[in-house]
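Q: I have 288 residues here and want to know how they pack in 3D. Can you give me a structure?
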Amino acid sequence: MFPWPIGLLADRAGRFSPLRATVFALLLAPGLYLVWRLAAGQLGPRPITETIHDTGLWAIRLLLVSLAVTPLRQLLRWPALITVRRMIGVAAFAYAAAHLGSYIVDQGFILLTVASEIARRFYLTIGAAALLGLGALAATSTDRMLRRLGGKRWRRLHRLAYAIGIIAVVHYFLQSKLNIAEPTAMAGLLAWLLAYRLLPDASGRPLRRVAEVAALSLAVGFLSLGGELAYYWLAFHADPLRLLAASVNWHAGLRPGWIVLAAGVAVTLAAALRATLVPTRAAVPQPA
């Protein structure tokens, strides 16, 4: 067995895992890059504010990535992905904790002020709730806690990740004010991830699952596009026709609905390729 932290890079059999090593490096990279930018004075006139933003953003991104492990594992028939899900979830908590820590620094380490702001501002209150939830999941992410809680209770507890994802996206929406492009994209991706878990069982029928995922991707992509248009129309009384024209104007930037749609189409194509190239194994009859 490898000593900690090298043991993080080993699989359950104690062998070095290139997948775990790659994922660990990718999880560490945004934090190291942020530290380098902070040390080099490249975060602009308000470096702490930029640090708060970046750490919070990566916390939500990694939470969504952790929720994407199950669909990708099933659609791509890549069982080894399950071995990195906990690592990604713990990293999401670490970035969320750094997000709160940066806010404490911004408030001059006056914890009473921090607590008062969290209590008074709704978006901070739900952000703190999401952090507490991630902390509970990180604290119970070990094999020891899995054995202590029992599989059924452990799985029930870790389903909190779905609610935490919703709370985190709402928190991001509320603090984003005018620019809701990335929160909308994250909301669309989260909607896809949650809706996927409601699809009927398609064991042994990969092509049927591909068709369901294609329909889901189209529906969520266009709903994300329509949701952004509806927001600007209702909140700012923007002309719907001009909004629609802007949504297909690539010079104005890629709208979040198209990003969600592209992600869904990419997953659908990858799943279709996997289903076509790797036939499903015939089910083994079970003894009566």
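Q: Anything worth noting?
A: DSSP finds twelve helices and no strands in the chain. Residues 282-288 have pLDDT under 50 and may be disordered.
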